[in-house]
Amino acid sequence: MLVATNSMNTNYPIPKANHRVEESIKRSRFIATAAHVSTPEQAKRFITIIKTEFPGADHHCWAYNAGAPGSTAKVGMSDAGEPHGTAGRPMLNVLLHADLGEIAVVATRYFGGVKLGTGGLVRAYSGMVQKVLESLPVVIKTAFVQCRITCEYADHNAVKRALQSLDAQSIRERFEADVMIRIKLDAAKVEIFRNRLISFTGDRAIFELILQ
To answer: pLDDT tens digits for 165-203?
Structure first.
């Protein structure tokens, strides 16, 4: 019996390591550097590091999505002195439409003396993000949730078999009037586990997602 629900991010790709590409566009030197970030604070520290690495650059435009792919809960952007809307927003749009989460990109520019115009800047900055993403090494992030199972003593072994069948991790067990088991489970396997729990116990066990 499922008695609580929660919105969850399932497994998704994230940057495996920092990655950099460079390109010359009408004599301006563009350097795009990408990194894994899981919080806005991490993103801001990364941006500061890149600014320190290239102190003579004219612009350090940036964008980040520190959450799941397409999520706007933890995003940020900056034109960093370029005309409004020509750098940060185009960069963020590319990140939000990529099947990738927890990433920050800084596009560093050394001005080469030739103005690109509004459209040219949008193409340059969005293009640099696309270019760095094309060769970015990634790994799959596994999202976990914690759950609570309450069952009768007679169903305890059946519940344990359901846990073992999906390599779910038992964190704590408490034996009182009923058995209460707290587990850690791959978020992508929640529905599979719920169905197995119903099958193994005849829908007698109570399954709760612990809201965090």
So the answer is: 988 889 999 999 999 999 998 888 899 999 999 999 999
- The CA distance from 16 to 1, in Å, is 39
Render pLDDT for 24-68 as a digit per residue (tens, 0 to 9).
999 999 999 999 999 999 999 999 999 999 999 999 999 999 999
For each of the domains in the chain, give its residue range(s) and CATH number, in order of start: 17-136 (3.30.230.30), 144-209 (3.30.70.240)
Please state, in angstroms and rounded to a whole number, the distance separating the CA atoms of residues 206 and 51: 53
**In contact, 116 and 124? CB cutoff 8 Å:** yes
In Å, how far are 2, 124, 149, 155, 159 from 29, measured between CA atoms? 56, 11, 57, 66, 60
Cβ atoms within 10 Å of 171's Cβ, excluding its own: 12
pTM of the full structure: 0.73
* Cα 126 → chain centroid: 20
How many of the other CB atoms lie within 10 Å of CB of 165?
12
